[in-house]
Amino acid sequence: MSRYTAFAWLLAFGIVFQLSHGVEVNVTDKEDMLCLYANLNVSFSVSYEVAGDRNKTIEFTLPNEVTTDGSKCDTTSSTLKLNFGTGHSWSVNFVMNGKVYQADSITFSYNLSDSTHFPESLSNETVSVTMKPQITNVGVDTCYSCKSKDMIQADLVNMTLSDVLIQAFVSNGSKSENITSCSADQPTTPAPPTTPATSTATAAPVTNFTSTAPPPTTTPTPTLPTPTTGKYSIKSDNSTFCLLANFGLRIGIKQGEKYQEMNLEPNMTKVSGSCGVNSSELQLVSNTMTIMFTFTNNTTKFQLHALNFTAKTTSGVEFSEVNTNLSLWEAAIGSSYMCNKEQNYTITNVLTLYTFNLQVQPFGVTKDVFSTAHECSLDDTSILIPIIVGAALAGLILIVVIAYVIGRRKTYVGYQTL
Questions:
Q1: Average pLDDT for the chain
Q2: Nearest to residue 48, comparing CAs of 120, 128, 152?
Q3: What is the model's pTM?
Q4: Over 70: is that where the pLDDT of 282 sits?
């Protein structure tokens, strides 16, 4: 028996503080007392090189069958290490700071020689990626809880944590019933109601927040200006453009009953990404938000396949959403997708994307310029012309029929008079 033992099992339904469909782990010290507890879900998205000079992206979740060899407990630092599959591991390092502790780093190691998880991989090496989590200021003798999704990004790896319940420093061998909740789970406090008489005198207008309650009739609902159109591009290894994107972008966020919109400011945005044969990525980072667009193609058409979004709202709450099953902005390889009119897309039930003057081409860029555009239905006037002509012809026919019926009735009445 090793110094630290662990048990991983599916959670029982309905037990207090246990979250369904997660991996639950108990780590014990040398005296066989509980020193670290974890219950969580982790999903991975990994891109790796395959034959044909292209990348392949696979997605999988942390399985229930894990071991904890390498986990350790100490008074000022603890490590949770979960080993799974053929040479894969996921670990978190916790450090104590006075009366609070935090997760200092998360390390994900994956073995590309494992054909079950990484079919057709050209590499046999084990890759390790270390990221900075957002688990901070957890009180001693409390469990850190975060049901919301927390997406952590790296160059080739995305990790999403959810339904997390962790106590890194367990005292007296017993898990605490006290909870330190993440900011994303904490309820927002609604603003106190104001009467029309006092609201006009003391309430300051809010430019990027819209309440679900109707505003006072004396104060118009504020709106954001149309976002500035930004020009974003990624270069390949030979310094030619391989991805082009122009658009103005507005994001709508819903947190409980609060709704907030924010514009992406191009002149305050850093651009990064990568181009592959079957997958390309564009990442935009501003001082308020981070957006990752993932485009895929099936050799004939491309589309926006995934969108990862994180932001800090005006109330200071971290917001994170991801959708990896999109089918937007579809066009043929060798062309671009264009939609100049304002469009809105429901990414998740709490995240909405608004685009203006959109044109994207993530594959097949030649001479560093956009190729012929596939226009969205709102822009394509060729669709409206036959509709207008058809409506005009239908109206003309209707007028002729009515005139004919009226003429017949007058003739019939004249015959009766004679």
A1: 82
A2: 120
A3: 0.46
A4: yes
